Amino acid sequence: MLRPARSAALAVPLLLGAALSGCAADVPMTAAADANNPACADVIVRLPAEVAGLAKRTTNAQATGAWGDPVGVQLVCGTVPSGPTTDDCVSVNDVDWIIDRSKAPLYRFEAYGRSPGLVVYVNSERASGTDTVADLGSVAKLLPQEHKCTALTDTMNL
Question: Pairing between strand 73-79 and 95-103?
Fold first, then answer.
């Protein structure tokens, strides 16, 4: 009779552990076309535990990251890099970021000139875009830089 009681005693911590570990579901995301690029693997294993004050979450897609509950920041590596654009480009800690504001309050930041491409989506109602790109700059720098942002004056012979 000792065996059933012992089995039940062992089952309770296992069930409790399973229940506690399943509190937050994976963030549903879609992998980019070049998500299996080894450079993306280098980025993903070095993602910070916190971005713009939001805690890291697990995702269901390769070469992606997410922070916040509810999610405020999402990262996708392996995107097709953008070419020249008229969107604003800012340099934060030696990383050029192009900013697409067309769907505000959801902003799209792309680490410009990096290959494979790296895109970060920021819900400005939950996170600061400036803090986000500052926190993710070190991982963006892991991707090879092929182009830099330029201004019109950079292309003119003065």
Answer: unpaired
Q: Specify the long-range contacts of residues 96-101, CB closer than 8 Å, at least 24 apart.
A: 96/148, 96/149, 97/133, 98/149, 99/129
Question: Residues 109, 133: contact at Cβ < 8 Å?
Answer: yes
* 32 compared with 21, residue with greater pLDDT: 32
pTM score above 0.90: no
